[in-house]
Amino acid sequence: MRSTPLDILKTYWGYENFKPPQELAIESVLKGKDTCVFLPTGGGKSLCFQIPALVESGICIVISPLVALMQDQVENLKSRGIKAQLLKSGMPYKEIDQKLDNCVYGNYKFLYLSPERLQQDLVQQRIAKMNVNFIAVDEAHCISQWGHDFRPAYRQISILKELHPRVPVIALTATATTQVKKDIVEELELADPTLVEKSFERSNISFLNRFSNDKMDDLFSMLNKSEPSSIVYVRNRSACMELSDFLNKKGLKSTFFHGGITQTEKQNRLASWLAEKHHIMIATNAFGMGIDKANVRQVIHYHLPESMESYYQEAGRAGRDGYPAKATILYNESDKQRLNSQFVKTIPTFEAVQLVYKALMSNFRVAYGEGENKTFDFNFHEFCLRYKLHTILAYNTLNLLDRLSVISLDKSFHKKTKLKFSVSSERLIRFIDHHTQYALLVRTLLRTYGGVFEQELTINTQLLKKKTGFNDAEVYSQLEALEKHGLLSAEFIKQDLSITLIPPREDKYTLNPLWKYIVQYQENKLKKAETVLKYIEEDAMCLQSFILKYFGEKKISACGICSNCLKNKAKTIKEPGSKYYKSIELFILKTLSESDSNSKEIIQKSEFPKEAVLESLQRLLEKRKIKLISKNIYSKNL
User: Which of 93, 139, 226, 594 fits a 20 to 30 Å CA distance from 620?
Assistant: First the structure.
């Protein structure tokens, strides 16, 4: 007898029930209907296609633009005993051929691939032979030129409808405006699809905009009072490390996460945060995909987000357990100016795209007509220095080239090691006979790499780790020690990016057809930045209502808990002499009866707004209930 969706949910995921939208989506797909799923972050979208794919025989084709998200989902499925494959850039032909054969003949349930990979003849030919039960298009907003992450390759996904015309399609996204929803249906050629929607409203999240003249101090104050766990989003790697160091010195347990740390470090830092050994995660937008921690009480944007879509997605990682949570943008005038000037200046123009592409081809010495599917590792900072490129503009341009399917960009951290033994094999053997701690590594090197005495070779340290059982630190410390003993010469090369060229190098023919997309990309980015500025400058409308209106919702009512709603409510209760201000004054007097304090200390201990505390301090001074005993130190009058 065929398993039911609920049986599969309990068996593989251990949940007792579906959320109502999930149930509706699964039921629609199992009836053979095209389906659109528009659920906010944390709504459980992946189960909407994974469960029906396990109910029916055959394989589900999953299209996604995000390699990290695909890897996360594939590993998650494998950990549950479900067979899944992933095709990613940089794979040799033989490996792709083998994986596709496994999907045709090996009883696999999921094949994950990018829209660019779908364009290959080999992939299309094999998919045509597969027993496909469903087609899932994840991050479906990428198909719309009005979406926040438009990718032209998504326009070609409809080829799957030609290969398997009777197979239902399920399109899923967490961020779609009314125009984007319309584009998804039209571009994917969906036939009278079932629309599964849930309001983007998050009634348990208090959306707060907070102006700050001292952001680091205010950040500490917010986190010092917060329950675990928290996420602080920043726009660059240096801010990750700077803020984490600042908070740790202040006694708060924080760690950081960005695209420049190794995969092992990412896993360790994530595990530490999930286990609440470190309550605070300082992160770039590299952190978030596949993160499902229910008790995040606070998400703080230390820098302004670039779009309402990315902000809402990141803010939505707060309060997934349904309990009260806060999503705060901490900003000042310089942030607004930075978004207006620096951000706008680093949106790639067509000329910038041509310049960076030409620099890449020169750097890797790619001749005209060559380079197709070849992968190149490089140090991004050194690349920018060599070609005198503005780093942020160049990085944004690489991301745009990735979206436009000119390159596939891998932001993983790599270390490469080149080495050559500089002594005879006899002397080397004598050395390890007397220094046995190096014997395993040296013998593994000799067995794995022939010719390492004759010429400098590039060493795969991941392979060495696997064969020796050592970790990164042990491998590198031993190699460095062998170099100090004069036994080998080694070069440790740090690579933080790699690209795979998708089409061969044909400068004009590669880039010129993309001109209109690049111009559209510029316009979209500017409009979305303008909307972010409008959001933080909005001082009357409910902030949650602002967000819901942006995403096209009609039934909107004030949330009552955002910073604007609280401010409007406070106008009626915060008159001098009101119960509200009496509560603040009592709090201050109680605090000062315990110890003399400055205003910052009082604010950090309180749950009241900074401005209200400062006003109350002034009134208590006027009433002579407190006094200043030195610069900014308050004491209670006896």
Answer: 226
